[in-house]
Automatic annotation (TrEMBL), chain A:
Family, as annotated: Belongs to the peptidase T1A family.
GO terms of biological process kind: ubiquitin-dependent protein catabolic process
Keywords for the protein's UniProt record, in alphabetical order: Cytoplasm, Nucleus, Proteasome
Lineage, highest ranks first: Eukaryota, Fungi, Dikarya, Ascomycota, Pezizomycotina
UniProt key word rRNA processing: no
Entry-linked SUPFAM superfamilies: N-terminal nucleophile aminohydrolases (Ntn hydrolases)
Oligomer status and interactors: The 26S proteasome consists of a 20S proteasome core and two 19S regulatory subunits.
GO CC annotations, alphabetized: cytoplasm; nucleus; proteasome core complex, alpha-subunit complex
Any Pfam family the entry gives: Proteasome
Protein name as it appears in the record: Proteasome subunit alpha type
UniProtKB/TrEMBL annotation, chain B:
Chief location category: cytoplasm
Family statement: Belongs to the peptidase T1B family.
Organism of provenance: Glonium stellatum
One GO BP annotation of this record: proteolysis involved in protein catabolic process
Protein's UniProt keywords contain Electron transport: no
Protein name, UniProt field: Proteasome subunit beta
GO cellular component: cytoplasm; nucleus; proteasome core complex, beta-subunit complex
Function description: Non-catalytic component of the proteasome.
Signal peptide positions on this chain: none
Cellular compartment(s): Cytoplasm; Nucleus
Amino acid sequence: MTSIGTGYDLSNSVFSPDGRNFQVEYAVKAVENGGTAIGIRCKDGVVLALEKLITSKLLKHGANKRIATVDRNMGVVSSGLLPDGRHFVSRARDEAAEWRRFYKAPIPTSALANRMGSYVQVYTLYSSVRPFGVTSIVGGWDPESELPVDGQVGSGPSVGAGGKTEGAQHGGPFLYMIEPSGLYWGYYGAATGKGRQSAKSELEKLDLAAGNLTLEEGVKEAARIIYVAHEDSKDKDFELEMTWVSSLDGPTKGRHEEVPKELREEAERLAKKALEGDDDETDDKMEE
Amino acid sequence: MNHLPQAWGRPRDDVYGAYDSSHLQTSGPNQHTQSPVVTGTSVVAVKFKDGVVIAADNLASYGSLARFTDVKRLRRFNSQVVVGFGGDVSDMQYLDRLLNSLDIRENYSSASDSPLHAKNLHTYLSKVMYKRRSDFNPLWNHLLVAGLDGEQKPFLASADLLGTTFASSTLATGFGAHLAQPILRRTVPDEDSVQKVTKEQAVELVKECMKVLFYRDARSMDKYSIAVVTKEGVDLKEDEKLEKQSWAFAEGIRGYGTQIN
């Protein structure tokens, strides 16, 4: 960044002559120091996982959860400045509640990502605010069946005006990532934070676009990827936090929940084994 | 011809005379609900040794017209609470949405934390009802909250449009308070007798009450919902039909219809 110190990085909402907003780029730097967060869109659900770095031995193990629930069917995990992440979640919950109040139905994941993208983008426009120091991953399951309107008590007339397309596909798993600039894309697999590079290359190996990975496999892969991504900062302790959301017929019944303890521990065991396996291989080669 | 936008859609002044704008005035006292409009009738519930049975028919009446015949008046809150609604159906829908948003907010924190139980929910609802009556804008409902309390013991209590609360081993709202409550009390006269009642007996008892209510309450229907709340969760059936009706007693009733004396 040769342009640093030229004065164009002192205020938000000011472009440098070569068309960059340095405050946003500095916000991205803040994200790059956070613990790795990933999301995997599987064929029957979404997994969110987080490498929660332990900042003090005095913190209670397993407390202070960082992956948050928005509405019932969506989760948000973010990497970067924690208070910014908390505010992001708070806004997302308000957006979801307001959507329900207005439409009497849950907010689609795409709509939430859109609204949060717009919200984050606004923080790049004014000199009185600073951009969000987080990149957030939003994962959700939009219901595939027709839901009753909130407060609906009956089914209404069995005949009458229709207007619905027969056999149209609705809902499914969705995954979005929103960056400090307000940029957001939908992903098959998303990674952010310190270990994003190795996490991304691991995600690419999974061929998620083919849509063959099941949710349970996704949980195990997510745990493994977080462990792989942690390799570079091995000196620090971390906790693995994982949540998932499946269809109504799936294990979470359409809700965003923590991955059950047994499954998470099994996934961690396999992740550690996979890492040791890698080490063994290299050891063997060295011996040869 | 008056072509100005404010006259669009209005009768022509030259034909009908100037519009009496006093009809449009918005001043005057605020008026809140003075009476319910679309209503549900009784809700009946009884505790038994392991839980609570609650039932309500599927009818929403518009005055004396049986207007909506598939209205579900029992709402499951979570795996240990069901709320039964008597009274205004639109106010019930408002409360349902309120409970929905409450449940969503509860789930922001991890689901492994203790969920709201029936006693919590009854306290909350009774305060909502009392607040609204104190604003002179009551929610025109009589609620029964059935489920398990914090010690996993059966819990049954009511809250009405005035914010009045009442707890008992048997409860019924509306017409049911007169017709079903005495029948329920024959089997469950006091709190101690709850321990002697099995789930099957309680379900049978509530079904009997629904039948009597259909015989004698003109705003009732033979299709109903029934829920059993136990530690195992909520077993909610929303499309039950009254069985083994016997209208023989009707022959002996005098004073209406085409009878001669």
